[in-house]
Amino acid sequence: MRVPTCFSRIATVFVLCFAVAAAFSAQAKTLRMGIADDATTLDPHSANILGNSRILHSVYEGLVTRDKDFKIAPALALSWSQPDAKTWRFKLRPNVKFHDGSPFTADDVVFSLERVLHPLSNLKSSVQGVGSAKKIDDLTVDLVMGEPNPVLILHLVNFRIMSKAWATKHNVLTPQNHKEKEETFAARNTNGTGPFKVTLRQPDVKTVLSDNPDWWNKAAPDRGNVKEVIWTPVKAPSTRIAALLSGELDMVIDPPIQDRERLKKTAGVKLQIGNEPRVYYLAFDAFRDELLHGNVKGKNPFKDQRVREAVALAIDINGIINKVMRGYGRPTGLIVAKEVQGWSADLDAIRKVDVAKAKKLLADAGYPNGFEVTLDSTNQVPFGEVAQAIAPMLAQIGIKVTPNIIPNPSYSPKLEKFDSSFYIWGWGSVTVDSLYVMQALVRSRGVEKSGDGDANFGRYSNTKLDALIDRIKTEADMKKRDALIKEALAIQRNDIGVLPLLQVVTAWAFKQNVTAPFATNNIPYFYRFSVR
Most buried residue, 95, 148, 334, 532, by most Cβ within 10 Å? Predict the structure, then answer.
């Protein structure tokens, strides 16, 4: 029987609409993300860098994680207990598979613990205090403490579990030597248990994350509909924003500060803003006896606290926030952000600019005419802009600064080699605890497996501060622990092991049809994202 013409047209329209809807639905499962700089490595235990974590947190998992409210939640561990003061016992989640289909067991936790404690790892702080791991059975493992850590669970958020069998097969039993830019299989390939797997890796060009259909948590109530993430480094800020506005990108993470107000007013685009527990700071080579990158011979000005204080008194932090950051920052006198456990309001005030006092301090230290020095910075926005703003401020007291803006992939390796006299960098607290920050930035560099001073690239050292940090590591009474933290922060503030500048106010820019809950640690948890 012939269908009447009107019904034929309706049917045709219906089919076309269905096809369009189906195509849109398929497209809605892909998130195209633009970012200024690519990850420097995919090795989960090599370099502790935010850009790397933004990929790795979707690929590798830990024993615990953060839920949508940023509270600690079970991940590869179902539960944990303390049979005795030196032991944390974890009951592991059954029926979990790595991306290659192999089963996750206690052997992988033991192996990952050994790997993260290797001298080449820069993530030893993720297992602070742990001395070894012991398999009890396939789904039970003990972390045996070398020293007590009352907040171990907070640290374990950053402890990523790797397959022992896969690492053995591909000869990546130890972490990549990041500072020497070593090429390893694990630096470009992954095998985690997380919601996404890396299916294409073209460094500095494109990385594709694809849905892991066998993920143990695929029925999570906060699961979005994104099944593929196309991660594209786009170095030029104007190009990145143009691609978002034209629809070529769905999301730009950390959009340029100068574009944020415009994006707020742009139809079809939305801007999410949040405080991140990350502080930008200046650091000094306080170790060498002679300035490496400057004109001073036979001595090193930055070993003298008076010189470091002179630098602090010359820098107009509010001016940097208003003119360079355009208000997207909060001045801070502490190396920890105010959301971090142990932060102290009465220590957080910044120094007032005092050029006359700064000049006197320099003269008293033996530099009445100042000196010349190179200030290293990554080209990642806005570090370079902040470095350039600091130069004329220090010129007022006779310190002639030459900003050295370095491509981001080369910046961390340079610092890791201690090849800097003066540099600007940022550090966030994934644990939201002061110990993580102080141990990394201002604790004297310690024995290879300690994690002490892992990011102390100026090799600053203060024995009194070291002793306090070591006490904080093991103090179980939280009131006493907070008092120790306050005392340590006061010493750091006065001695200026590093000079805090500002706490970051960060932003994500999206097309209107993207829904993505903002994460305090500035890491996108892609499995929670949806595209309509």
Answer: 334
Report the length, in residues, of the chain.
532
Phi, psi dihedral angles at 291 (to 5 degrees): -60, 125
| Tens digit of each residue's pLDDT (9 = 90 or more) over 403-459 | 999 998 899 999 999 999 999 999 998 889 999 999 999 999 986 667 899 999 999
DSSP-derived letter for residue 231 is: E
**Nearest alpha carbon to residue 195 among 213, 207, 183:** 213
Secondary structure letter of residue 421 according to DSSP: S
The CA distances from residue 233 to 195, 230, 505, in Å, are 22, 10, 22
Write the CA distances from 164 to 93, 180, 295, 422, 524, integer angstroms: 17, 24, 50, 40, 27
Euclidean distance between CA atoms 38 and 207, whole angstroms: 9
C-alpha–C-alpha distance, residues 469 and 446, integer Å:
12
Decide if 125 contacts 152 (C-beta within 8 A).
no
Encode pLDDT of 493-504 as tens digits.
Answer: 999 999 999 998
Residues of the chain with pLDDT under 50: 1-28
User: Which amino acid, 157?
Assistant: V
For residues 208 and 73, the answer to whether their CB atoms sit within 8 Å is no
Q: How far apart are CA 100 and CA 82, in angstroms?
A: 33
| Beta pairing partners, 92 | 77
DSSP tag of 126: G
Residues near 7 by beta carbon (within 8 Å), at least 6 away in sequence: none
Element housing 483 (H / E): helix 478-495
Full DSSP string of 200-228: EEETTTEEEEEE-TT-TTTT-TT--S--E
Name all domains of the chain by residue range, CATH numbers in brackets. 50-211+513-531 (3.90.76.10), 276-505 (3.10.105.10)
- Integer CA distances (angstroms), 181 to 44, 78, 120, in order: 15, 37, 12
User: Side chain identity at 233, as an amino acid letter?
Assistant: P
Spatial CA neighbour of 249 closest among 225, 268, 230: 230
**pTM of the complete model:** 0.88
